[in-house]
## 1
Amino acid sequence: MLKRSDFEKIADSIKSKNLDITERSIPFHHGMVKLFYIMQLMDRAALVESVVKPLILHCSSAQEPINAQMTIDTIIFADDCRLESDISKIEEYILSGMAVALFSTDEEYIVINIKKIEHRMIPTPQLTYTIRGPQDCFTENIDVNLSLIRYRLKDKNIQIKKSEVGVRSKTIVAVIYIEDIANKTVVTEIQKRIESIDVDGIGESGELQSFLLNSKMQLFPNIGLIERSDMAFHSLIEGKVLVLVDGSGIALLAPKTFSEFFYSCDDRYDNKFFGLFMRLIRYAAIIFAFTVSSIYVAITSFHTDILPSDYAISLAEMRVNVPFNALMGALTIEFISELLREALLRVPKQIGPAVGIVGAIVIGQAAIAAEIFSPLLLIIASTSLLASFAIPDYTLINPFRILKFILLLFTGMLGFYGFTLFLTFILAQLVSLNSFGVPYLAPWAPFNFYDFKRSLIYSLTMDPKRPQYLSTKDRTRTKR
Amino acid sequence: MKKSGKIFLILVFTLCIPAFAAACADSKDIHEQSILMSICLDKKDDEIYYYAEIANITGSNKDEGKSSSADRKYIFYYSHGKTIHEARRKLYMQLERRAYYGAIRTLILTENFAKEHLVEYLYRLRTDELYRKKTMIVITTVDPEKLFKINNENDISVGFSIEEMLETLDEEGQSFTRTTSRMLENLSSSYTGFLIPCIGLRNNKNSLVGYSVVNGTTINGFIPVEDSKALVFLKTDKPRFFYTVPYKGNEFTIETSLKKRKIEPSYEDGNVSFDLKFDFEAKLLYGDKKTPYNFDDISNEGVTKILTEILKNEIKDAVLEAQKHFKCDYLQFDDEFRVKFPEEFESMDWQNEFPEASVNIDVKVVLSGSWMMDFETDVRK
């Protein structure tokens, strides 16, 4: 039994740490029960109705002392509560949003979960907008996110393994997968990497992602971002592993290959041939966004021979009064494009269009009128910028945005030779990558016809099997 | 990073910088070059004249040496010297920027120049990487200065104009063209000749006037365009011409297209012979009389017979001209013979064998007369 002096000591210790912990004492026959909680994390109405009120009513009339077990069994109405006896964990429970009831007459205490954290209503997607699909997506509250997943996936084999990451933040991270589908090696690897994280705090899934990468120097993403609950559901069904981080509205998805970054939710919901068409457009978009300004430099400065004569004349006429050479022009205009993109991301929504108009129209028009840039280069840069927005997962385009400048330098110095050389470096790098054991360029390298076909045209009716490169436990989706 | 890794990176970086810098210095933007559209070479008074047509990308060029208004889209320069090199060097001295040969559409050679320097110039093109090997080569019968001046006054590029004209005629099945690479291929065989389109001026417009016959290393004849129908049947894939066939007081206009051509060589007892088979498709378009005419099967047969005879005679004349008059295989019969009899071909002198080869010509014409509907309708009434 907890001694009276120990009980007071613990209570004093909790109060003395300035943790903004609220204390509520309720006396009973020859004893006292103290409730500790953080008011901001508590559903106060539920606390009053389920805990405080029943306790007061009971204690005021009872002629005998109460203990923790008896309180849980017969007095309080809270649905999620348990007995604990480890005194060192009391603070942790309180800080994580639980209410703790300490009894002067018992060495055990009660941990009551009536947490209520303020969060946004279920928002509409901001990263992966779709025309036809559902509009609900994850919020910053992990319980809400779990509810969205469970609402769609009623499989008894779903596994949700929660753990805490961050010595100080104690952020809840949930690894979710379907037991009889997901590849065990991938699940184990993800859990292993999460368990090995040694950091003071994780505030967002992006921070967790940096710990899950294969290498600290990795440029290309091998983990996907999931904002939409329907996409989370589809990914779990495919055999992937989802990682939810409390406090983050974006879940992590692994493994993720290069080709999967081109999938959009609409591909599943719309006509499959339209999906194929759009995928081809997206593949073309990334090639265009990455290479077009370099090709312009190579053709203008090195390999003019490949131009038909009339194009050569038009190009020369456009550039005749331009002071910069092609490389400097392309580098400058790409820099301005990146500046514009960054500015548009950071400015308040109300003045975003104004910045766009100033950047695109005023600067663009003025630059052409002043003959600082060739009109063709401006068209190329703006189309390249536009193409970069066509990729559904923005994390893939980011490395290419950086590499584009290096490619420009290589091409500006060595023409198509440099262009090919640098592309070969990138290709070699991509081929050597993997996402939790799955080859990054699958299904192209290593080539698998079924998956290749599936990477272009997706239809539930045409694809009875799960992607083979994922090596899932259950390889078939439908029984035929 | 390990020390060896750092050293490796420094080494790679050090080696790359000079390579990159060297390549960078060598590059030249397109607008920093003089874009040549056509080149013409002439020989007058024992000197080589070098004419160059250049795209006027600035629109306000006021240099000396050019012979037309600065506002023109194309300006032309010329120079002359004892050799091609000297003439070219003198031309470079007039240019503001480095000459860019990649856009040249047509190489024009005068007959005088071609007679002496054609082979030299073709070999020069083979070694010169600056030229496109698809560039078209033509011979001109006109004084180049006149040719360029007339075109320049009309703001027309000689290079573009000639190339487009020849390509259009080729597509229409009215003519055939020869690119530099094809000519170099022909030149590599010493036993054969080839034809080069010949350009002149008609009503002050560029026009195909015929074909120059190149035998060995020099030009030794000219075939006017009016007599070249059979040549086109022999050398192109889809030739198409209109014939007027007189039959029973009517003159019928017939569109004649070659459907199939087969050249079958044979070699027996040391004699070379060729069986030429032509399948023509003919469409009877119209007659020249209003008189109703029932174009029945007998008429069809009659007209077909006359047309067949016309075509056969034309082809026969064309072959005989090559064999007997020019004594030169510009029809490239050697290609067929060499494939079928490679060993025999190696051991013979084709230059002497070709003129003696016997040629059998078989022409088949299928004439469709459904185009004479109005004539038939009248008779039925």
## 2
Amino acid sequence: MKADLVAGFVFIFVSVVMYFESLNYSELGSIFPKIGAAGLFLFSIIYIATSLREKGEGYFSKDSVEAFVFTFVATIVYVGILPYLGFLLSGFLYITLFSYMAAPSRTKRVLLASIGFSVLINALFYSVFRFIFNVPLPSGLLESLGL
Amino acid sequence: MFEFVGALLEPHHFALIICGLIAGAVVGCLPGLTATMALALLVPFTFAMDPTSGLIILGAVYVGAIYGGCISAILIGTPGTPSAIATTFDGYPLTKKGMAEHALVTAAFGSSIGGLIGAFGLLLLSPILVSIALKFGPPEYFWLAVLGLTVIATLSSKSLIKGLIGGTLGLLMGTVGIAPIGGDVRFTFGFTELQAGFDLIVALIGLFCLPEVIEMMERRKVQLRIAEYKKKKGVALAVVKQLLKKPILLIRSAVIGLIVGIIPGAGGNIAGLLSYDIAVKSSKEPEKFGTGIIEGVAASETSNNAEVGGSLVPLLTLGIPGAPPAAVMLGALMIHGLRPGPDLFSVSGDIVYTFMYSLIIANILLFFVGFYGARIFAKLISLPVYALVPFIIFLCVIGSYSIRNNMLDVYAMVGFGIFGYFTKKLGIHPGTIVLGLILGRIAEIGFVQSILLSKAIGSYWAVFIARPISAILIILCAVMLLWPVFAGYFKKEIPTGEGD
């Protein structure tokens, strides 16, 4: 219920901001956003009212928070370092470290398997995207080293 | 007719169809790489070919890519192409039940049947069908979008209000960027990168994929693999037998796909969603949809592959592409010296008819490619979650980057992922947000243009209501919304997999 209430108020805030922002646009450009914002406002009020009546359920368990933090921190670090380290190096580090850290047991065997899996995936997709699809993937560090 | 079919039976044409189908399926199954991209990538390779061979392989790639979108939709819950959005609703729950092969065979069979009906529609009904499509003006597009938005009711049966919030959020996201009419720069808050609006594919990957992989991580302590893949004998035959008992489902889905495909701009995603919605509403057991049944996969996949033939109708007869991949086909036709339009059939009839027959053969072969490919792809889910999750995120990153070779799309994808995770936790189905995003843009253009028309002729009634196709679409919208009341099951829940 608490999460529903917070979400309801966030949606109301979004609808109010979008409605007032759309007042700055021309008549034709603002019709649809105004309708959308008004709709979101109305639905959010009903959402809050229904969640006040309902007993509600807990959406976030300890496991879900842990999984969210682990996955998103790892992903944000990955996309953050990608332009600097390049596609190959960052992809290799990401898949290796993620699969090793998230594995139920962190043994040497798991580490070796993670490294092998990561090398295989990176080599395969780098070749396909770079040489068949001609996508200019970021080279990052390898380019600055002249490789 | 026999001369065209005879030309296709030449070994190199046959080989081109098979290569095109496999290449299309591989590109289509990667989230972020669409059928349009697959075709665009392949067009340069056809420069050296004669026009017939070039068009044959492009047609096969188009068919393969639309089918390929279902593979990731079924195995990892992320549509490979926007056309496969509705396939996730039942395809992924089937995978979680350990029935990935059932889902993949269903998709291959449904795609094959849908594609065949679409190709025959293209071959036999082009002149009649195109005359209907030409009657679509702004009010009809508006009502078509509204009809598509009624799918929200099906996707959000657990809480209609959450579905409506999801749809409205998607609709508002669709307004970010330069207004299609009026040219206002809206809701960019100073970020020039947002002027082009949110890319649909980026939103799709973020909203569907990231929340799903986090949920995999949440369950990893009790469920190390999404599902176990065990090779079973007789799955394909059993699935095909079961589907053959549902001829109405297959034919109805294909007809929906064909008609939606003919309407320029509507696209395979709308075809799949509409077909799925109608399948739920006309089922005797609507509560089973979303829990993992093959009928849900068949409805979506039959329809989106029938859309391929439909989208080529206005392209070949009028020179108007019915969908983005058809626009690339238009370019390919022109590169090969063919001018799509009314004269195409009289000037280059041999090439065009050979191409149409090649689509029929491609759709027959699609079943075999899908059937054998299913066994290979289904093994993917046997990977442990701790290896599968970084692999999927890696694919999402490379997929979103390759859309415009831009890191901003990757950041946006992660942003959509965070947003999608929280909204999914609240019980808002990601399909409702995507639906609002896709249909909001079509609805806005239709709505604003209709208002301008109404002001010009001085009557809202005449523009919005009194036009025959608009009236039919309004009736269909009302039927869709009131269907639960008619069917007498409005108090029952129709789970759609979001909370399973």
## 3
Amino acid sequence: MSSARPKILIVDDDADFRESLAVFLESHGYAVLHAPDSEQGLLRARLERPALILMDLMMSERTEGCFAIQQIRRSPELQNIPVFVVSSLYDKAPDFRIPPDRAWLGHDEFFPKPVDLERLLEAIRRYLAGAGAAQAEAQP
Amino acid sequence: MSSSPAQTVPAPSIVVIDDDPAMRLSCRKILAKSGYRVESFEDGASGLEGVERLKPDLVIVDLKMPGISGLEVISRVLEADPSAVIVVITGYATIDTAVEAMKAGAYDFLPKPFSPDELRIIVQRGLERRRLMLEARRQELERELLRRRFVTFVSHQLQTPLAAVHQYLNVLRQLEDDSEGAARRREWYERCLKRVEEMLALIRNWLTLSAIEGQCLAQQRVPVDLNSIVASVLEECRALAEPEGIRLEARPAPEGCLCLGDPVCLRVLVENLVSNAIKYNRPGGRVEVAVQPVDGELELSVSDTGLGIPKQYQPFLFDEFFRVRQPGAAGKPGAGLGLAIVKRIVAELGGRIEVSSEPGQGSTFRVRLPAAPSGVPEEKDRVVCPAQNSHRG
């Protein structure tokens, strides 16, 4: 019986971004699910129960990612899944500043784009290592 | 809560500062009769307080007052509100001071004695000036807001493809070199090039838009053969249309129908409309570009068999960075500047544009442009079709 690869869901409207990240993660032993927008992201999350979600913030709607994370935190079956925000909207925008503050956004880690792949890998390992411990940590 | 049928803007408010009670009274009476709201003060100190509290549309101040002088009042009022409109009342003997007051920033002066009409006229002019200054300030704020939105959006628009290219290269760097890897490597190089081209197009559009705004784009008013521009643009766009099997068709105007305008701008206009029609089309669809004389003008229409534009988005279509959000439209490259450029050009050319669209069926953009005076011009007067520039949106 093969051990199931942990599933990671990437929610991002940029197909190129999803593809290269997927190949990277797969080469490190993860199974990757794709969603091009928050609606499909939430659907797949409910269906597949990934171990981790990587969420873009600005998709076709400016704050799409933020609302998606809200939904995840409100939903009993999804709220314990660690969510990493991956976004280029950070720091330099004059009128849309996101404090990478868990209390505000409800995420677990923040990765600006372009992504530091080593740091991402390390964080993924840390969160998935002890699923129970990671869940406890992910509580807001 | 129902609104009253005659909802009026509050009457303009005026502050009068003068130590002479008779002057204060007569100003109040005259101005109140004209429907203005007036409050008066007997000295500079209370006057300044009043101005700060009431924020009037106009201030009338006597130059010669004990205590805080009229000139001092002017400078303090302007310090608080640089767009304040101030009228000074002067005695005949203090005309020099009046000039000084103007230099200090007063709008106008009224020598005593003055008639009610004289007062009313000067107040009217002052209020008009106030209205214009407030309008200018509002526009400035709007521009600043737009500039910020522009900066945010553009930076995101550039960061997105850059992040994608960066990640492709970063991951490629780490992967094993095997046969599967080689094929993937080639595929990803193509994708990187595409994203880089997207960034270049964005920058070009940016520059085109500011060139039009800054009026740097060449602007002549000459007879132009729109048919030949259309033919040339369609030829140029064939590479864009072919992969999706989209047919490009032209319905040119009769020979001799020329447009009056700037050839470069016209080309950019046609390029943007056609490339949009191709981009937002369905595979195997059709783009038709027609030019025809209508009511003494020329009408250029570009229609596609694409996704169509839902009615609720149509008012925003020509806004900078606006892109229709609907399934099927996702993932289209382009910053949404194309139609903003089109709108700007149409305005510059003295034309009009309208769009009609049925969701699921397609859209037609119709542009009315001034026609060149009739009669087939000599060959030497015709403008040769300008060289291809990519100002595409």
## 4
Amino acid sequence: MTIPHVHLLLNHFPVLGAVAGLGLLLLSLVRRSEALKRAGLEVWFVVSLLTFPAYLSGNAAEQAIAERPDVSMAFIAAHEDAAVWALALMQITGVLAWLALWKERRATHASPLPLAAVLLLSVLTVAAMARTATLGGEIRHPEIAAADGVGATQASPGAAAWVASVVIDNPWAWPTNETLHFIGLTLVFAVVLPLNLRVLGLMRSVPFPALHRLLPWAMLGFVINAVTGMMFFIAAAEQYTLNPAFYWKIACLVAAGANILYLTGVDDVWKVGEGATAPAIARAVAASSLVLWFGVVFWGRLMPFLGLTF
Amino acid sequence: MAFLAWLEASPVSTWVNQSESVFAYPAILLVHTIGLTLLVGVSFAVNLRIAGVAAQVPLAALRTLTPLMWTGLALSAASGALLLTAKATTMGVNPAFYVKMACIVAAVALIVGRREPNKAVAVLSILLWFGAITAGRFMAYLGEAAQFG
């Protein structure tokens, strides 16, 4: 299994997952079902996580076919630009879906605003993903590419080139992004440490629901790091595409994100009161969560040394 | 300057600088980063609580994580000392390094000298950690240390 193979495998998840997520949310409105709504939001969150590796494996897939005479770089560039927009919309939807799930944990009176926002973004994300997938398919399937193909629309530099130029042309962009990436990291740990340690049995006097308001700070840290991290990747993809440490970091990140969903969404954890012990499954998730977050730091910090130097 | 040069020529510095082993420079940098996550992570959580986030969490409970914070400080200080000796002649004259040290000393002083929980002090503490991180990162870009991973 190679990284281009991973790309071809994962690239179906954002498209089909987005359709499934939107479908579940619409169905939840028709049936007035809280359970379906939660399922829909959870699908969006998981799919938005999987969209990271789907995007990030794309540059290796590009390298694998770029030299072929029958492959047009204009098609790849158009696909990549569409993917930047689709990724951004998908991640906004994912964060909003998480916020809606998180709000349900606190609110006695659920506000419809997060769901409306998720629905709106869902529709946009489905459209952007469909476009990305179509353009991606055309790279290796000339039979479905229109005669007036995408090559002609690539006269002006697109989203990916714009992000790259912002990072590369501005000498302080890279160090500033690194600084923000570290600050985001400490924010994530400021929440992940007390949260998981409480589930594991430290700070036993704290009822788990008391930690509720801490969770969005982890999401803020995650968003800062996703934005700055994507800027690194888009600006200098060649530093990452051949680096195994980078893919391990992303794998740890996706799994750690799934743990956050478990801790946000599963009722068992939220019933853990003052002095109470969390269920064994929750403790296992919390332990793996800590291992995974330190795994993210481990692979991230060793990235320059284990792979290509930069 | 002679002292910095002597420091950088010491056997430990030479090993950190020149060893091809992943246990030399990369591992020390990793320990430095893990120390950061523990030290600043826990301090951040306590300060957010003092600033008013998650007010239902008893402050005393959160402060049971303090040993983790000191562990982080010990890891960062020890690894930082090794990194510093390895780059003594460049870092010893780097203004960002002294800004970083000033921020850390002030932030640790706020933890050690804490009296009553105070929102302004909590916010100041968070800002000092941001300052330390910023200065630390810019140490690699200011002066003649551009290859500092």
